Amino acid sequence: MYESQVTFTLDTQALSNFRSSSPQSSSISYTLHFAPYQLNPDFPPEADRHKWYLENKHFGDDAAQRAFQEHMASVAEPLGIALRFDGRKGNTLHAHRVVQYFQDAKGAETASKLLDALYVRYFEKGEHPSTDETLVGACVEAGIPGEEARRVVEDKDLGLAEVKRRLREVSRDVDAVPVVVVEGRKRDITLIGAKEVGDYLKALEKIASESS
């Protein structure tokens, strides 16, 4: 069986669909790997989300911001996601640090659950993406023991040098996310920007057919 790594630079739905429906899925083993990326590495520790988007993305235009929020809500609703646009936002360095630490320590499945929990807390609950409370809660939801989660979250130096190194490496090749790289035996396939699930599924099937 050929083993392929799928690197997500922050949709795993396509991978799930491929595993459950494709006749080629038994011939290839995919492993998820999440790579860190900060769109705004100099972002302050904390900011009001609604105010920041209004001032920095919509230039004070309330109507434009409402139109954006209504559109995004309409896209997310059929997927069962109830987006919130209030709450706090802030620098995500330590969220990346914690995700990368537990990906290395416990594997891709735990990292995937951790990311899912963080996304729900930020996008649906309006929580700050990288406070200790948010990170510990997400870790516990991912199956990480609370004491271990708190130790890693509260030790700000643990894994910091490594995640900064990875961020520098990724930033040399990536200037926007998401980026998905599917590694194949003959070639890799890179998909840049948000795609439909079917686009990712085609990439997975292509790699499988070329690697058999």
Automatic annotation (TrEMBL):
<dbReference type="InterPro" id="IPR001853">
    <property type="entry name" value="DSBA-like_thioredoxin_dom"/>
</dbReference>
<dbReference type="InterPro" id="IPR036249">
    <property type="entry name" value="Thioredoxin-like_sf"/>
</dbReference>
<dbReference type="GO" id="GO:0016491">
    <property type="term" value="F:oxidoreductase activity"/>
</dbReference>
<protein>
    <submittedName>
        <fullName>Thioredoxin-like protein</fullName>
    </submittedName>
</protein>
<feature type="domain" description="DSBA-like thioredoxin">
    <location>
        <begin position="61"/>
        <end position="204"/>
    </location>
</feature>
<dbReference type="Pfam" id="PF01323">
    <property type="entry name" value="DSBA"/>
</dbReference>
